[in-house]
Amino acid sequence: QVQLVESGGGLVQAGGSLRLSCAASGSIASISAMGWYRQAPGKQRELVAAITSGGTTNYADFVKGRFTISRDNARNEVYLQMDSLKPEDTGVYYCNAYCNSRGLGWRDYWGQGTQVTVSS
Question: Is a pLDDT exceeding 90 seen at residue 103?
Answer without folding.
Answer: no
